[in-house]
């Protein structure tokens, strides 16, 4: 640690000067640092490696979960697929307002005309037509999307639709993008 500062023997009161003297702090021993070698100790290297491993795992998890800086907007194919899934989910639950909102204007008119022809009752609009003639007809419906193709503002979704007590039926669902929103263009 070093050498302790030397102390002077106590002087008598008579020999003490009348002016106060500044107190001088004792010198602190200097610590010697090891010479820098440019290498970390093995313990520090392991700690740094562990931290980097954890950071890497977090980045991979975020990328897989498609969140944070790795999130990306849905593609047009994903948006078209979501329209078809929502359309058939609304049909199976009897939510005719949601069902009709996913149809183009022409398709809504076609649904209204078809239901009116089948029931013999004139309905005002798609929702009213389905409320009268479509309730319960799609309960238990299941859907499996096979492929989605988009060309410009038109899309085609190939799917398999299964109603209870019926064999699975392959379907081609045509879509049209209207003002950025995908709509079913062929409700048959």
What would your notes on this structure say?
The chain is an alpha+beta fold and 188 residues long. The protein has five helices and four strands; from the N terminus they run H-H-H-H-H-E-E-E-E. Strand 1 and strand 2 form a beta hairpin. The mean pLDDT is 81.
- Strand order, largest beta sheet: 1-2-3-4
Largest sheet report:
4 strands, antiparallel
Count of helical segments? 5
State the total count of DSSP E strands: 4
List the main descriptive attributes of the protein structure presented here.
188 residues, alpha+beta, 4-stranded antiparallel β-sheet, 5 helices, 4 strands, 38% helix
Q: What's the gist of this structure?
A:
The protein has 188 residues and is an alpha+beta fold. The protein has helices at residues 42-65, 76-93, 96-101, 105-119, 126-133; strands at 142-151, 154-162, 169-178, 181-184.
Write the layout of secondary structure elements.
Blueprint: H1 42-65, H2 76-93, H3 96-101, H4 105-119, H5 126-133, E1 142-151, E2 154-162, E3 169-178, E4 181-184
Antiparallel strand pairs: 1-2, 2-3, 3-4
Helix pairs in contact: 4-5
